[in-house]
User: What shape does this take?
Amino acid sequence: MKILVVCTNHDIYPTKSGKTGLWLSELTHFYDVMVKRRILIDLVSPLGGKIPIDERSMDLKDECNALYWSDATFKQKLENSFSPSQVHADDYRLIYFAGGHGAMWDLAENVALQQITARIYERGGMVSAVCHGVSGLLNVKLSDGSVLIQDKYLTGFSNVEEALASFVSEVPFYLEDKLKERGAHYTKAMIPFMEFIELDERLITGQNPNSARKVASKALEELFEK
Assistant: This one.
């Protein structure tokens, strides 16, 4: 079985000098759970090629980050992600959108990735995302024209978390507000940055970086134990 992981290519903020990109643990924690079950993983990004890492997420005291950051195969995948045109949706049982602030700029508007997502879902596969990666689901439409997330229970990075992270002035939108605008039933943990996931049939979402591992575990449970 193969799964597809979507990462951002976007690495700049409008005014801040620091670099954004993928939040590393949102990939490594998910990846680790899947690798341990011998599941094959492909990485895709809107432009293909190199996936930038948000410099604030380069925490190598995190054992999982350190393990994969020293793994040549993993690093090669980060340098050489597929572009959407190289991906055949029918090859995958699950798609997962990793976050990091960069995702807000290039995942929400990528039509090719939206089409891949809709195809996987409509063939009975699972759609999953964590934190800002949930922005990749905002504009996914199914073949009947309906919006994938409308009337679905889901979560994603909250307005409170965005304010606490002090990046409100930089982000193009509040994810929580946009999800509600699209007709999703948005839920969140009582306490910011606590692990929290939401499951609605074949849609699994995690609220923040601390939720990536649980999204992966729940996805495996749904795929193999039902």
In short: The first helix runs from residue 24 to 36. The chain has eight helices and eight strands. The chain has one domain: 2-224.
